[in-house]
């Protein structure tokens, strides 16, 4: 593309471009938020880019930044700016400290290795825009920041922005298998065409890396945490290296999930015991082999002794033993081990408490290049969970926050649920141990929602979750609503009324899904295996803590999981102030009430309703919000291109139907348990409980 | 798209459109042969389309034809012609008999229900182009024929063409599973997003139907012949109906593969015995249910008692009993049963002879709406097979020819192999029973090579196999080379020198793959299960007739499968003239020699070489041809857009490597068996036989 684009030179393109009659003309979502559509007249006048001046050492990353600026300006203003030697009026000046033009004054130290400054200034009598950074990667991020400012309608003549990431490692985790099936993928197959790599390198890999770079995402774990050892063989490393070559100019490092038993499976060893010298030697040789083909390899992500995966406990060793052995192999090359804390042992004790109990005692035992990766909440990516008690509780251990962008438990890609508020909620949560969750982590990982679907994410609005993840990982202090506003302006329209209507709809969506699926702190009520739809009645699974009944504990006398002092005591894992507040139903916020407490159906809620009536009210509110979202989207018809508007409309129809299904099936079930009549005026479930229980989904995606 | 396009009206578009800087600008193959790029100046002057006049009853199909003409002319000439009431100069006139303008004289009867005539003529003093047909579908096909003429550089001022299909049913068979895995699919996942249907209807379904309509393909079996019963449940019928609604204007009927045991699996019956009244009633009710939601449903394709699929023989009934029971259910609705003859029983007799022995005795026993679907050759889609002996041998039974477009045994989508010559070879084969194969069939089915890959077929050149299948199914008398020329002109370039170079390269490709995989009548030498690469040494599979050693029978004394009178006698299944010729090695063409005969390694070949030397020569020739193809493609660099040129180049590199692998592994193996030295001057295999035998491909696609 770059070559093609370079040929284009300064050719003036007409606005009629958007009316191209070919198949490619419709907005299908492929371009994501990097659409670079022509700005409307007043904004266009503000876009005075006549040239690009490079005052920085040449590199592939710098060239990528310049090409992206040319592409963006060509799209928005109709003319690609040429690269010039000296800053004329209206130049974009990309500068690093050693080569910055005279008269440029920047607090370089504050920018660090990845940050940037954008500033409108007068240089040698000419009005120019400065993009300043210490590195080519900073210039790349600054270029995308300038393009974002232009696309969102910022005043480009008065820029004065400085930004540096607060979290150093911002990674996507792809749960992609080598056969291209994506575990919990709802956007088609895996982007990685392992069979054809490294010979065939899809142009889409570049666009993937561009999109990540535009957000500051700087790493990608390519394969599923439920890993195959094959990904560590020489042929698969060559394939991963081909992807790394594509990603490198865009600042995205390749990581791999490592199967702990690889020394046995691939190396022919008798054991994978992390204390065995031959095992350690095998991993050291493997690390050296990897760095020979991927010199900037990020490191390993490991799911060990969790849900059937092999791990150090198979040999009587600890998680620290396992992680440190891999860390030792990676350390000479600068690699990092991300060791997942998502573990729950086979015993029957409260599943929510197990990761804390397993990992907290290991604090201080991990090698310096180990990061323990902790899911946002103590169960598993539910519509709402309290933050995980490990955050703030392992001061001697670098932690990573693992978020799930793919909506395994939130309606797949069919439901419009903006995750920005969910991410914000956990990032800004006060651990009461002297830090927020964001302040307690060195890395943020997001389980990707990306696949081969033309729109990348399965539905248009799911792109916003990728976007919000990346932007909040770069700067957890951003407000989710502001990030949504940026996204909507770039992805749909910068016109304020329509943009704000979209943002309002997104803002409502997260609370809606909580309401129609799992209100008041309920969790894990979904269908078995595929996790599609409601199944609160399931009580017959292999492990007791896989059953929805284990989590809601509804009976004739009440509902909820008692994690207070009278129950599993898991609440005591939080800092004392929180443990006190959440240990008492009177001081527990309603949205976490049944997470921490088992309460009678007639428990009085702050609203004045009984718990049972409040539960029904919340389910109804969720359905009503989805209906309202659909109405508000319909009203946006004049503002949105036809294909994307119709597609979102179709998805909202599905969501409205499935929200009712969740509401009806859950109410029917809980009523059958409580034996209580429906509160006056409540619409009865549309079908019988038996009908809902009979539904089966043998070909649901993502399993 | 149509709505969007209609808005466009007569807006003049500039040639600069092709330089659109967005991501969509590069040629990625999505548009197939329907690219409608601006014609170069002299050809553009020949494109005098100023208006479209519709002299035919309105219908969705007619509107589709008009929209396609508008889209095509807008792309090629820069201006979309408006629909006019009366034929002005330069009009395209679409006419059916009842409404044809005065002065139009057409041999309507010769056109049948699907045919069309294109003619340049003077009407009321104005030069116009007539597209005439008896039906809207004929007008649709005629419109695509006119667009093809325009794109291939025909003289549009002197058109006089008439065409009507010689075979009534022209179907794609999709081996697509409900989880979107495609059996023997090498182009990504299934197009059919069953999970999201019927709510979400991908715009791509329309483009799929358009592409088929452009070739005259008039039906699609949506699901794998290894069928799940689920596809016959109400939810899946609703999904299929949504696809049928999209396809209908484009003349593409929906068919389904039916699982024979559905009455037991879905209906709760104790049996699926075709003579059981309850089973018959179940199928009749199911057919009625299908036609309620898909009124023009095509019918069922059935794989029964074949490779583990259930069938009538499970109940001691014949294939005719099974097919007739389904035919009875479909008959009231006009539906058809396609009953596959691809069967081979568990006994050890020559697998190539079994379908004939099973089906020939049933001739005359099938209901009128049953068509027996026979693969092109008696084994299974090998690079070369003799035509199947059933063609011409069942005069009382309508037959269908089943071709495989997806290249299960010909290098997947990685090898450039144009199948036109293979299709042509079988279609034009003289059965010596008074007809060619094409003359002996009522239907032609092609196992599709289409998936979610952006270019539809996995590689650019595999689009040509879809194209050639459709065009040859419409008119088996076409020359494969002419069809390739049409395709190359539309898909890559109409400039004669480059176009003809592409065609020449395609023409060589089929013989090349025969040479480097299975020369001289060898067959079934491929790897187990995935069918990737050579494995002539495999001799340990569950069934003896799954082993490559079963098929080549190589030993110290010779090689080949003796199907003559001294062997399995399978050659006697052909008409006497052929049985005589092919029963004797002296009159058997070299390309079928080892299909029919087991011969000593020193057997003298017409070339003067020994059989062993000839075998090595052919393997070498195959490799050399691929090298030549790569060189000739490289020379086309100035004529092809960069992205597609680079992609094809990368695939040719893979093919050259894998052709050597085939050649080296097969020669190494056959040499180990024959014990003979390599002929003088022969390059020895690059690696040891053991090396080739050790290769494994655990994640190969398409299994």
UniProtKB/TrEMBL annotation, chains A, B:
<feature type="domain" description="Glycosyl hydrolase family 67 catalytic">
    <location>
        <begin position="151"/>
        <end position="456"/>
    </location>
</feature>
<dbReference type="Pfam" id="PF03648">
    <property type="entry name" value="Glyco_hydro_67N"/>
</dbReference>
<dbReference type="InterPro" id="IPR029018">
    <property type="entry name" value="Hex-like_dom2"/>
</dbReference>
<feature type="domain" description="Glycosyl hydrolase family 67 C-terminal">
    <location>
        <begin position="458"/>
        <end position="681"/>
    </location>
</feature>
<keyword id="KW-0378">Hydrolase</keyword>
<feature type="domain" description="Alpha glucuronidase N-terminal">
    <location>
        <begin position="32"/>
        <end position="146"/>
    </location>
</feature>
<dbReference type="InterPro" id="IPR037054">
    <property type="entry name" value="A-glucoronidase_C_sf"/>
</dbReference>
<keyword id="KW-0326">Glycosidase</keyword>
<dbReference type="InterPro" id="IPR011100">
    <property type="entry name" value="Glyco_hydro_67_cat"/>
</dbReference>
<dbReference type="Pfam" id="PF07477">
    <property type="entry name" value="Glyco_hydro_67C"/>
</dbReference>
<comment type="subunit">
    <text>Homodimer.</text>
</comment>
<keyword id="KW-0858">Xylan degradation</keyword>
<dbReference type="InterPro" id="IPR011099">
    <property type="entry name" value="Glyco_hydro_67_C"/>
</dbReference>
<keyword id="KW-0119">Carbohydrate metabolism</keyword>
<dbReference type="GO" id="GO:0016787">
    <property type="term" value="F:hydrolase activity"/>
</dbReference>
<protein>
    <recommendedName>
        <fullName>Xylan alpha-1,2-glucuronidase</fullName>
        <ecNumber>3.2.1.131</ecNumber>
    </recommendedName>
</protein>
<keyword id="KW-0624">Polysaccharide degradation</keyword>
<dbReference type="InterPro" id="IPR017853">
    <property type="entry name" value="GH"/>
</dbReference>
<dbReference type="InterPro" id="IPR011395">
    <property type="entry name" value="Glyco_hydro_67_aGlcAse"/>
</dbReference>
<dbReference type="InterPro" id="IPR005154">
    <property type="entry name" value="Glyco_hydro_67_aGlcAse_N"/>
</dbReference>
<dbReference type="Pfam" id="PF07488">
    <property type="entry name" value="Glyco_hydro_67M"/>
</dbReference>
<comment type="similarity">
    <text>Belongs to the glycosyl hydrolase 67 family.</text>
</comment>
């Amino acid at each position: 593309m770059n070559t093609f684009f370079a040929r284009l030179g300064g050719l003036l393109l007409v606005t009629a471009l958007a009316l191209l009659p070919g198949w490619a003309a419709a907005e299908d979502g492929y371009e994501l938020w990097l659409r670079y559509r022509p700005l409307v007249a007043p904004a266009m006048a503000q876009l005075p880019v006549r040239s690009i001046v490079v005052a920085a050492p040449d590199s592939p990353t710098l060239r990528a930044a310049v090409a992206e600026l040319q592409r963006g300006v060509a799209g928005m203003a109709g003319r690609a700016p040429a690269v010039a030697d000296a800053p004329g009026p209206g130049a974009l000046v990309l500068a690093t400290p050693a080569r910055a033009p005279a008269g440029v004054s920047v607090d370089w130290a504050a920018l660090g290795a990845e940050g940037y400054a954008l500033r409108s200034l007068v240089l040698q009598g000419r009005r120019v825009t400065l993009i300043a950074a210490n590195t080519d990667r900073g210039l790349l991020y600054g270029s995308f920041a300038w393009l974002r400012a232009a696309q969102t309608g910022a005043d480009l003549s008065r820029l004065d922005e400085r930004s540096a990431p607060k979290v150093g490692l911002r990674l996507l985790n792809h749960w992609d298998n080598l056969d291209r099936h994506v575990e919990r993928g709802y956007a088609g197959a895996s982007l990685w065409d392992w069979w054809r790599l490294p010979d065939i390198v899809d142009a889409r890999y570049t666009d993937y890396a561009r999109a990540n770079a535009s957000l500051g995402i700087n790493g990608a774990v390519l394969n599923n945490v439920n890993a195959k050892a094959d990904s560590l063989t020489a042929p698969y490393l060559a394939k991963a290296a081909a992807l790394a070559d594509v990603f490198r100019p865009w600042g995205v490092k390749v990581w791999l999930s490592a199967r702990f038993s690889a020394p046995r499976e691939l190396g022919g060893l008798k054991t994978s015991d992390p204390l065995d010298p031959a095992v350690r030697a095998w991993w050291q040789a493997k690390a050296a082999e990897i760095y020979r083909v991927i010199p900037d390899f990020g490191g390993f992500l490991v799911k060990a002794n969790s849900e059937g995966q092999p791990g150090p406990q198979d040999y009587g060793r600890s998680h620290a033993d396992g992680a440190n052995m891999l860390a030792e192999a990676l350390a000479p090359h600068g690699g990092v081990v991300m060791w997942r804390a998502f573990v729950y042992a086979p015993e029957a004790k409260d599943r929510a408490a197990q990761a804390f109990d397993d990992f907290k005692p290991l604090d201080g035992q991990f090698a310096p290049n180990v990061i323990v990766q902790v899911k946002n909440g103590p169960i598993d990516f539910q519509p709402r969970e309290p933050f995980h008690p490990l955050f703030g509780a392992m001061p001697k251990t670098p932690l990573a926050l693992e978020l799930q962008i793919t909506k395994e438990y939130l309606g797949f890609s069919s439901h419009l649920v903006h995750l920005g508020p969910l991410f914000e909620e956990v990032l800004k949560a006060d651990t009461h141990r002297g830090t927020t969750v964001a302040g307690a982590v060195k890395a943020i990982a997001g389980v990707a929602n990306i696949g081969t679907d033309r729109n990348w994410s399965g539905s248009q609005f799911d792109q916003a979750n990728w976007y919000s993840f990346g932007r909040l990982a770069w700067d957890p202090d951003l407000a989710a609503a502001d990030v949504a506003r940026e996204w909507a302006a770039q992805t749909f329209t910068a016109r304020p009324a329509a943009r704000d209507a979209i943002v309002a709809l997104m803002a409502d969506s997260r609370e809606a899904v909580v309401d129609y699926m799992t209100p008041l702190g309920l969790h894990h009520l979904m269908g078995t295996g595929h996790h599609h739809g409601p199944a609160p009645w399931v009580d017959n699974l292999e492990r007791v803590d896989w059953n929805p009944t284990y989590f809601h504990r509804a009976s004739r006398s009440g509902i909820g999981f008692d994690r207070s002092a009278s129950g599993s005591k898991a609440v005591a894992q939080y800092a004392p102030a929180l443990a006190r507040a959440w240990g008492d139903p009177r001081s527990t916020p309603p949205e976490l009430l049944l997470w921490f407490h088992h309460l009678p159906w007639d428990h009085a809620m702050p609203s004045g309703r009984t718990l049972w009536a409040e539960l029904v009210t919340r389910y109804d509110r969720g359905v009503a919000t989805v209906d309202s979202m659909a109405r508000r989207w319909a009203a946006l018809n004049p503002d949105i291109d036809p294909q994307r508007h119709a597609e979102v409309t179709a998805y909202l129809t599905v969501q409205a139907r499935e929200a009712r299904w969740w509401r009806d099936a859950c109410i029917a079930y809980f009523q059958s348990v409580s034996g209580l009549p429906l509160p006056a005026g409540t619409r009865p479930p549309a079908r019988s409980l038996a009908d809902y229980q009979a539904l089966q989904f043998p070909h649901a995606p993502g399993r």
